[in-house]
Queue: 4 jobs
Job 1
Amino acid sequence: MTNSTAPYLHKVTVRTHPDIALIKYWGKKNKALRLPANGSLSVVLEALHTTTTVEFDLSLTADQVQIGGQVEAGEVSRASQHLQRVRELAKDKGLLNQDIFARVVSQNNFPTSTGLSSSSSGFAALSIAASRALGLELTERELSILARQGSGSACRCVCAGFVEWLDGNNSENSYAVSIAPPDLLPLRDLVVIVSEDKKQLSSSAGHDLAESSPFFVTRQERIGHKLVTLKQALLARDFGRLGELAEAEALEFHSILLTSQPSVLLLYPGTVAVMHLVHRLRKAGTPVFFTINTGFNIHVLTLAEHEQHVRQQLEQLSEVQQVIVSGVAGGPEMLNEHLF
Ligand code: DP6
């Protein structure tokens, strides 16, 4: 059988952007549904992107998933579980009455599994492309809820600009919304690659350890206030305050990692060298701050007018392999050129 017997099946290609959290999602209150322990706030990054093509095909007997030219069993299984969520949604809406499998090809323009949140853009892209490929017309909120179940941070990457994930207490009210457009601030994220090693700990495994840190309870007590304060600084375009809060949050997050049982030490000497440089530049008067996810690569935040100076300084560090400069992205884009 070919797809001509199922005219609602389309080949769809979408481009999404990963984000960098200024207030981190760390720990889950419901693992199966990926309900986060707390709300989070992020910026979607224009220079980094994931492109994904999905086509459902009646002749396939299993999902075929290729990411970055590789077919890796763990990734295929996680993507296939997500495709099943999309199939179930299509069945609920009367668009499908049998399981039809999909061919998925996905590519990132940045190093994968190095702590640059490839799962955030990856599952956002898969959610959008797969749902459209089955003829589903989901709202941004529905897409966010769907993407969240593939990877929590992906719920933010279906949105544009500066994004807040409302933590919620059930699947229907845990989703992300855009709180400000990309041009709110001339923010630049200098994504500093100090290594392309594959990271030792997946974020999913890391979330399970969060509660083992004695500081996790304190974090939870303070996080609501922190979110409100950072949001206020953002909406007031107060970059100095925003950066200060984001850097303190990154250090708190890594303190939780370091004090988890077992301890998780992800920072490389190069990461720490960049942290010191940021502090030196700040002392000398440049508004510049850092944040880090579950990896060794580090995000250096500044304003457009200081981008060149900060970049030059970063590139002088022997530990720095590459600096990718990013502005703030708009939302996902549909592409007419497909990957297969
Ligand atoms: C440190 O969204 O990758 O980047 O839901 O298990 O897929 P899963 O986790 P994931 O965790 C991201 C953690 C973080 C912080 C953040 O992006 O908010």
Note: The helical segments are 73-92, 118-133, 140-150, 203-209, 216-235, 239-258, 269-283, 307-315.
Job 2
Amino acid sequence: MIYLDHAATTPIAKEVLEKMYPYFSEHFANPSSQIHPAGRTAKAAIDKSLKSLATSFGVDESELMWTSGATQSCNWAIRGVWKHYSIKRKKIMLSTIEHSAVIETAKYLEREEGAELIWIPVTEDGEVDIDFIAQHINEKVLLIAVMAANNLTGVKQDLKKIGELAKENEVFFFCDATQLIATEDIKPKDLGIDLMAMSAHKFYGPKGIGLLYASRRNPRVNLPNWEYGGGMEIWKKGGTLDTPSIVGMAEALNWVRKQDWERVKVMRDELEDHLKSLGAVILGEKVDRIVNASNISFPGISNKRILQDLQQEIAFSLASACSSQNPGPSHVLTAMRLDEKTINGSFRLSWGLGNSREELEKVKQLFTMQIEKLKN
Ligand code: PLP
């Protein structure tokens, strides 16, 4: 099986797993048990990991909060800002192509708490409409949510420009950076991002652990506790911390930064060229995209049919993993106003560091056979 679904999740890197092992067994003590050396060893590993992550993102350790992944980070950021700051400002601006973790949270606030949502449109290439933001952002807007890179197309957004508009209007800027972090460095403070979500399993770390960044200066974003219990004074989140996963997340970020993504980009581009020669269109091809993602369509050829025939040999998706249970066209592709034939022919291939040139050749061959068969 050739795995081309790294936007859904990545494997844990071997080097990362090795660093995690001792914290499952040998150094298993509760990091809150500061009374004995075993607990202090676990706490030291957590402190070291937090410091390393904070340094990578150019933020202070006190600005990072552990979560169970990007979904919880998105929920905490949006619901938290709403809870503490929505007395005067009731509007939330969000792009039409956000992940469901953002969209459903915003819709919940609209339904239950009186938030007014302003949907930011995107171009046919999947870039958010910056002019629309400039025209609609004002002193009534509380928060703007725009993701760093889309999970379906890989298209990146002009975060710096959005950050500037947010600052000028004193609007909180929340960025879901989940899909960008594997392949690119990001420093939220340089981009005017006040809150940022991420998940370790998208960059060769373990599942079930993420971070939320919330700025403590310029502006100070004071979020409510996510829950109540032990450990609240530091983490605003209760419960025993998961030392192996935390160690794994920090190791994964250090590891992934040292990898050769250019090699992956070359393979991604080569396959795109090959598929174009068979009649494919590449969504978002003209604009800036992360290096490992492709959204491809053979207009007029059913993506379901392609998947059905190739799924034993290549693991890939039609929409995002979180919505593959949801039949019907993806909200991202409809927001891009693509025609029905292009939408129904579209699928996502997302490359990873473990993919080889042999696999590339095999994928080319499989698609050639499949497309020729379906064309006839
Ligand atoms: N945001 C984006 C852009 C994603 O791609 C995903 C996962 O697919 C999430 C949020 C949710 O991440 P998690 O499943 O780790 O909570």
Note: The longest helix spans residues 37-57.
Job 3
Amino acid sequence: MKKINRRSFLKALGTAAGAAALTGLTGCGGKTSAGTSAGSAAAAGEESVAGASLDIHFHSNNKYTISDGDGKLLPVFQKAADALGITVNNTANPVATNSVQEFELQATVQFPSDIYGGTSVRQAVNSYAALGAFLPLNELIEEHAPNLKAFLEEHDEVRRSLTAADGNIYFLSYLPDGGVGRTYFIRTDWLDKLGLEMPTTFDELESILYAFRNQDPNGNGQKDEIPVFNDKWEEIIRLANLWGARVYAYDTFNERVVMDENEQMYHAWIAPEFKEAMIGMHKWYADGLIDPEVFSRKANTARQTLWTQTNVGGMTHEFPASTGNYNYNAELLASVPEFHLAAFKPVCKNGKPFEEHHRVVAKDDGWAISAKCKNPVAAIKYMDWFFSPEGRIASNFGIEGESFTMVDGKPVFTDEVLSQTSVQTYLQTHYGAQLPIGFAQDFAYEVQWTPQEGVDAFDLYNSEVTYAKANPTLSFTEEEQAVYDTYVSTLNTYLNEEVTGFITGKLDVEAEWDAYVAKCKAMGVDELVKIYTSAYERYKSL
Ligand code: CA
């Protein structure tokens, strides 16, 4: 995230908010109902907000708002408004632009809409909240959000993940479901052709990759096979897992301070085993096992290019549903009828394999209520609706009779939905389902468009694979956040350059390693580890 001077924002908000930030009061001018006594909670929970109106500024994935291209509210958001008898207006710019910048622009006008949200804005919301710009939701939830309250009581890890450093909840996150993130997939048609078995050890995998490279499994007489590739270059770095090195804390590539089995934080990219991984990965790169264009290829094009278009790709580490679907890709099967992928379990050079990529408890995407909100009760009730039984179905599956039908009490997508290239994108753009507001994802949504090989991958990883200890979603104090903002972006830029050099051979790992570690220390690596440690200690005490 870019560095933001939030103190100047505090000045702009004026003395009322400044005082609120200092004394821990809620927002501006006593407009909130957060101070309502607990005794009236039950009665207040029934209170109607019909006739209220909410302005919502939500911008996600650099392109989505809660309205369609014509400015009409997306069906799921309209359904939520209808359920409460309120009016909802989209105030976010419908133009495709950077969602975080769209959010930050609103700081310059002091967040005038009622609800704010989008992708990757959790830390920013918590920082602005510390300056009085967003309402603490704890009492609002307690008194007016029975569905959300019940959900948080049932999911303590979610409650802790949503809690900011000052003990309040300001931000309701998108809560993924399903556990398994990426898994390893390999071409079983190539294994069959070369008379090889699925790999169960590092050495077996390595010899398979050399066979893919040297024995022409695509049968065109050319040495054009690319045994290992990824849709994103950041993901190829995670191959270091095969040498026993950790790489990312969870599914955000910027998070590189990880914890060991004893819950001690360390920076993954300067660990001794990471050095061994760089030496090994350089050898693989030099021997043609790793995609030579991995650092220059356009993101999210490798599977399409190296499977569908050129049939040269061997193995990857990707999401089970979308990857398994290549087994049913008509265009691909027309030219390579025998094409087939299956998942295999991680292997490790040190004999202790693990998978690192697990879905996070709470994403950095979601929404919050502005301190300027004219009706906080209506806002929290609107947010609560998405945790009600009908809201959970709508936020996952869309609209009954249109995107799904109920079969034996369960939502089942229509053929039209299931025939889409990307079910998720279709639901987001046509219905507003699966947009990353504060909602709880239901894995049943994904299972319906996951092919058998993807389901097999989920089962294999859920039942037989050891996962590395993942960081929970951590919240920083203002002081910690300032440290983070000072170091993390420039450090990561440096790490990316150096590690690219190590893998491609532009830099010699043995010769450069000590200087690289020293430079990382000079760039704040120890300070970062310190703030992650204190944030984690606080998380554990919640
Ligand atoms: Ca070939």
Note: The radius of gyration is 25 Å.
Job 4
Amino acid sequence: MAEFLQAKDNRRILHVDIDAFYAQVEMRDNPALRKVPLGIGRDPDLHHGHGVIATANYIARRAGVHSAMGSIEAKRACPNLVFVAPDFEKYRSISGQIHQIFHEFTDMIEPVALDEAYLDVTANKMAAPTLAAQLRHRIWQETQLTCSVGVSYNKVLAKLGSEHHKPNGVTVIPHELAQDFVLNLPIKDFRGVGKKTLEKFEKMGVTDGRDLYAMSLDELRVQFGSFGDVLYWQARATHFSPVKDRSVSQSVGKESTFELALHDRSEVEMTFKTLAEKVVLNMKKKKLLGRTLTVKIRDDDFKTQTKGMTQAVPFELDAAFLARQAMLIFDEAYPDNFSIRLLGLTFSNIVEQKYEAVSLFDSL
Ligand code: TTP
Ligand code: MG
């Protein structure tokens, strides 16, 4: 069955990941940093021992410095480590540049992080490895940054590919090599295998893809529940998750129409609350945020008004707050008597929550 499914998957997917992103940007902008071990984070000596390493250049990595390590620990591992505080504004703007380049190749893009995305290039006539080379060239041309790219027929294999020859490499995993590639993969490299799963596998004597392949689906389900299925199919180089194209989502909204026109302000208020709750739920499900909120009102004479509010930072996904904003606009448009046939609430200028998640590291 696995072989049959594999043969059906004719997609062409790239996974792109910038090498040591924040560190590479800082080395680009200050060449003196290229020859020293560099950690992006606050110097613990200047900040009362506080700070976390966001990333490190390859010189520092060889000394044992890595992402999410405390700055003190990093300094202990690498005493001459040079610290540079992160500049998120800069990284965000470079990320925007890179995502624009992605659009030269396809509109089916799933951003994963500021420096990382899946691209489905199935519709592009050119061969996928050629596209990978062109993409790397374009990114270098525009940003003077190197990246690694994995090319294959599913997302898991494309990601494994981009990790395979890091930094500054391309790895193509075509159908005929995929099964072998996965069989030889250390068990720790499979998607979703963290510390706990790894310990469990160690006890079971499972060390690589070949050992995993030998396990039955039932056995894997008993050990890992539904994650067992994921492992079973990964060992067979099969994974059908599509590239989730979030760039097409230009707006997320909801409208209500009324057979019997509304004349009562409290009914309007209640409707906006319900609409806001639905829109918020939908935005949360899709992990999106919006910078523009548009309120739509149509009355009995079919006069339709739309009013938008745009902010520099995305709106908080708080239904009560959004409903209040909508009411401000409504009260301005209809201070007295009214007869309302339609109310709507829509977010546009959509951004991914993941992009904003970078601010989690703002407190470094
Ligand atoms: P990664 O792509 O995971 O790491 P990287 O680009 O630094 O290194 P490489 O891809 O070559 O392995 O993450 C991208 C950026 O996200 C990274 O430069 C810094 C930031 N980041 C953190 O702030 N904290 C973290 O724990 C991780 C993993 C990344
Ligand atoms: Mg990276």
Note: The mean pLDDT is 91.
